[in-house]
Structure formats: structure tokens, C-alpha cells
Amino acid sequence: MQENFLHKKVTIIGTGMVGMSYAYALTIKGFVRELGLINRTPERAQGEAMDLCHCLPFVEPMDIKAGGYEMCRDAQIVVITAGAAQREGETRLDLLHKNAGIIQDIVPRVLEQNPNPILLIASNPVDVLTYVALKVSGLPSSRVIGSGTVLDTMRFRYLISQYYNVDARNVHGYILGEHGDSEVPVWSRVNIAGIPLSEYCMMCGELVDSQKKEIESDVRNAAYHVIQKKDSTYYAIGLALVRITQAILMNQQSVLTVGTLVNGEYGIKDVCLSLPCVVGSNGISQVLANPMQQNEVEALQNSAAVLRKALDSIGW
Q1: Three-class DSSP category at 288
Q2: What is the spatial distance between Cα 132 and Cα 130, in angstroms, rounded to a whole number?
Q3: Which residues are part of a known binding site for NAD(+)?
Q4: Which residues does the entry assign to the active site, renumbered to this chain (predicted)?
């Protein structure tokens, strides 16, 4: 394994609710030593930096600054959360035309200051925008990472844990594909404390198909429900981004369902979507194509087709 970076720097582009929930969580976690904030309205970024700096007597030492794209220099990770937010009644793909142009503007400006960062994309529709960022940047696919279905997977594990009344950290399972309506819950690979779900059901009560469908629906529609009640989602995606950041900066070689370019896995090519990936200091070192049931493979292929259609619609 590569040695950990001694100087850990992250730059966030976009200081809205997602960007700042992420920044606040990073400040509390304490494993980043320098944090740069960039926003199209500089005063907003300056105010956010001031507010975070007032936390410093209670957390690990950090250097928190706001500025222009010079903030990207020497950053191991540049995180893009900028873009139009999803509103009530909108799907993530409805944001496509608005946010693809924003990514095309941001990425070259980042690379002018830092030619080889790891780009972490969180703006929606994240799978499409990860692909756009990859093509615009010319960086290796290992270094352009989408937040993908890390959040969806968190929701999936949480809901299963609630059903069985166990710690969510002992539930293992994945949501793959699009971070959106075509996402795929891989029930065949779910386990609780290493016990396959089918066996666990026999011991602790069966999770019947109707209940599985309810969990799938709750995961798929979670963002819509939150947006309906409080206009936007930000805490959970903020922590999902922290988890990815920690895997990179600590070179943890963690398996996370981040978005990446798919080149043949499950018969899918030339789209970015989420599969279990090994994530460390060089970004994605391995994509894990685990065996799945045929209906799950077909659902994943359908998810890829949805994303390819979206990319075709904007000329990619």
C-alpha cells in the first residue's frame, strides 16, 4: 500500500447544503488538515469558512480557507457539489441539462490549478455527470469517482437493520447501478453478520417479497420523501462523501459502491454507474463484479441503458 499523505487537503466546489454538510462533518471527523471552499458567490464561501473556523477550538487542527480555483492546488481530492438542486417533483435526470454544462465549466478550471487530483462528483444526476467529468478531464477512470449509490446502500442497510432490529453496521448488502429510479438492490448478496439473508430469515423471521418491495421503494424514493418534507437532502450524502474521502486519504482499500466507468462488467460498457469498488489513495484500484442472479444482472443492464440514453441526449 502507498504511504498515507502527510498533508491531507480537500477542496469543495459548491458551498450549498450538500457541500457544507460534508465540510462540517469533515471538520468534526478531524482527518483532513486543509480544507478549501469555492463558490460562485465568493462571499458565501467566505462566510462558511469563517463559521467553520469558529469550531476549531473544539476539533483537530485544520486550516480552512475560501477563495478561487487556486484553492485546488495541492488538494488530493477535489469534490464537486455545485449545481442546481433537485426540487419537489423533479427526478435526478431532470437536472441533466442544467448541471452538465456546470461540470464542463468547472473541471478545466480545476485542472489548470491541479493537473492530477482525484475528482469526487456529488452533483446530480451523479452518474451522468461523473461520465462528463471523466471525458472532459482526460484523467484515468480510477481518479474520477462518483458518490454513486453509497448513500442508497446506506439506506438499504439501515432499513434491513430496522426490520431485524440489529446494528446497521452488521448488515451487508449493495444497491448498484444508477443513483436514481433504475437502481438495483442485490438481494442475493445480502448478509447479516456473515449469514446469508436466506439463512438468517429462517432463524429470525422471513422477509417476504412484499416487505422486500417496500424496502426497495423506500430506498428508491427516499430523496423524494425528504425533499417533500424539508426541500432537500444533505446530511446523509454529506456523511457518504466523508466515508469515501476517508477511504482515499487513509488508503483504506475500502469496498464502496462508488460510481465508476464500466468496461465490460456484466456486459456493460461506456457508462458510469455504481459497482462495489476498492477505494484507496490512488482512487479506485479494483472493480468487483460479484456473481448475481440473472434477474439482477438484467436489471443492472437496464439501469445502464437508462444512463446511456441520458448521455446520448446531451451528445456524449
Answers
A1: coil
A2: 5
A3: 14-19, 39, 44, 69, 83-84, 99, 122-124, 147
A4: 179 (proton acceptor)
Q: At residue 194, what is the residue type? A: G
Within 10 Å of residue 264's Cβ, how many Cβ atoms?
A: 10
Distance CA 312, CA 274 (A): 19
Q: Please tell me the distance from the alpha carbon of residue 190 to that of residue 204, in angstroms, as a whole number.
A: 15
Are residue 115 and residue 245 in the same domain, yes or no? no
Q: Which of 115, 146, 177 is the last residue of a domain?
A: 146
- Confidence at residue 93, expressed as pLDDT on a 0 to 100 scale: 67
Active site residue 97: no
CATH, residue 123: 3.40.50.720
pTM beyond 0.85, yes or no: yes
Domain assignment of residue 184, given as a range: 150-313
Residue list for the binding site: 14-19, 39, 44, 69, 83-84, 86, 92, 99, 122-127, 147, 152-155, 157, 172, 233
- 128/161 same-domain check: no
> Which residue carries 482512487 as its cell?
283
State whether 17 and 129 are in the same domain.
yes
Which residues are annotated as part of the binding site for substrate? Answer: 86, 92, 124-127, 152-155, 233
pLDDT per position as a tens digit, 103-120 = 999 999 999 999 999 999
Q: Are residues 28 and 129 in the same domain?
A: yes
